[in-house]
Amino acid sequence: MDSDIHDITLTVNGTTYNGRVESRLLLSDFLRHDLKLAGTHVGCEHGVCGACTVLLDGEPVRSCLMLAVQANTHAISTIEGLTSPGGDYHPLQQAMHDHHGLQCGYCTPGILMTMTAFLDENASPSEEEVREALSGNLCRCTGYQNIVDAVMTAAARMRS
Amino acid sequence: MKPAPFRYIAATSLAHALALKSEYGDEAKFLAGGQSLMPTMNFRLARPTVLIDINGIDELSAIHLSDTGPTRIGAVTRYRALERDAGIARIFPLIREALPEIAHPQIRNRGTIGGNLSHADPASEMPAVSVALQARLRLQSATQERWVAASDFFLGSLTTDLQFDEMLTEIELPPPNPRSGSCFMEIARRRGDFAIVGVAAMVTLDDNTQCTDVRLVFCGVGEMPVDSGEAASLLIGQIVTDDAICAVAASAQQMIDPGGSVHATADYQRHIAGVMAERALTTANRRARDGQ
Ligand SMILES: Cc1cc2nc3c(=O)[nH]c(=O)nc-3n(C[C@H](O)[C@H](O)[C@H](O)COP(=O)(O)OP(=O)(O)OC[C@H]3O[C@@H](n4cnc5c(N)ncnc54)[C@H](O)[C@@H]3O)c2cc1C
Questions:
Q1: Which of B69, B77, B82, B263 is closest to B176 using CA atoms?
Q2: Ligand 1 within 6 A of B103 CB?
Q3: Tally of structural domains, chain B
Q4: pLDDT tens, B249-276?
Q5: Considering the entire predicted model, what is its pTM?
Q6: B243-271 burial, b for 16+ CB within 10 Å, e for fewer?
Q7: Is residue A1 over pLDDT 70?
Q8: Is residue B42 less than 8 Å (CB to CB) from chain A?
């Protein structure tokens, strides 16, 4: 079969990109290989591990379960856009650092994208709600407790 | 690249999508949330030659609520939209209670009710909920349309009554009976996993708190949703007691034939199906009685 090519225009972290993609190219691979934004990690590539989570129009989604062509005209946010333009950490990044919420760091971009969007929607979460929101992101290093602590701390700091 | 090559077409209208499907037939698949289809394509377990993206068809994602008449939900309505809809929570608390059991927030941001029912995973929650709520499903092709009861739609594991040229376009739910209560619960290995056993229960009471209608549908214990309404009908015409609920749970337990899996043996599934039927009916009855 001849390759099926599409022209797409999308924004990633506020910057507009034009791309020419084969229909079967996953959004995760488009970000990493075409845009060289390799902060989005790929783990299982069937939606289970959460490492590839990005925001699609502000909502966390699996970039390994979306085609790049489907992102045409949409706004994507990735880990590369999380720090402020001046380079300051997002409060959750700082709290993850403070609480030792990562070891190898492979799952961290997906966790940060998931949990920053969660905190935008729920400024005063209970620990139970944090655990539920985190349920779609696997971490094999930390046992999750330090991540939960980091999210609770970030929520408190963001409220004050 | 993970998926095998295919042609991607973003349908611009329902008529466009249906025309494409009748042209390409089984070679083509509709792409809704992609949360079941894309994993199978990434593994090349599915190799459709044409993907018809139906995400851009706005008319397929509308929710029309009614307290007194049928409620209609477009097939491309995402789980998250249902979760956020206060009207759904008020009129169909059973749906609201089942939604958080489906996968994880990221999956629910994309997955659609129509894709879920069309995929027909035997452990999936919504097929059982749709049978318990006596939903009717609207199936459309380029040339005709028909309505099928949810209880007739599921034919086996990952198999439905959808024909090669048809799309599930709408889910219609009759208004719940006044003074009814419902309960959904499930057991899974981890939060968000598919159910080892799930159960949807509904109890309707009359002014004397006698039961006039009851539904009991399991997921995860057969090839498709397992309707144990017959076992539960024992409650009808009575004031629901703990003993009667235990008797229903015991007979439902005998009537199911779970397959067992790497996660749980068939005996374990049968055991917890009984325990959960008991708990779900007790909760549904209490909610009906107390008007919750
Ligand atoms: C990590 C993970 C965990 C999950 N856990 C659960 C869970 O616990 N419970 C659960 O129920 N599900 C679970 N799922 C699956 C999820 O619910 C899917 O969203 C759902 O099964 C399919 O819906 P979709 O909109 O994503 O459909 P798609 O993946 O887009 O499509 C699925 C199939 O249905 C067909 N189709 C789609 N829409 C239509 C239509 N309108 N008419 C006709 N055919 C159509 C497609 O061609 C395809 O064959 C999980 C998925 C993942 C990735």
A1: B69
A2: yes
A3: 3
A4: 999 999 999 999 889 999 999 999 999 9
A5: 0.97
A6: ebbeebbebbbeebebeeeebbeeeebbe
A7: no
A8: yes
Does ipTM exceed 0.90?
Answer: yes
Q: Is A80 left (phi over 0), alpha (psi -120 to 50) or beta?
A: alpha
Q: Taking residues B28-51, what's their average pLDDT?
A: 98
* Nearest Cβ partner for A24 among B1, B43, B107: B1
- Domains in chain A, CATH or no CATH each: 5-81 (3.10.20.30), 91-159 (1.10.150.120)
CA of B206 vs chain A CAs: smallest distance (Å): 37
Instruction: Decide whether any atom of ligand 1 lies within 6 Å of the B102 Cβ.
Output: yes
In a domain, B2, yes or no: no
Residue A2 has pLDDT above 80, yes or no: no
Does residue B162's CB lie within 6 angstroms of at least one atom of ligand 1? Answer: yes
Chain B, 138 to 197: residues with Cβ < 8 Å from chain A are 190-192
Quick check: B117 and B175 in contact, CB under 8 A?
A: no
Q: Is A53 on the interface with B (CB under 8 A)?
A: yes
Q: Two tokens at A108? A: 């961290």
Q: What is the mean pLDDT of chain B?
A: 96
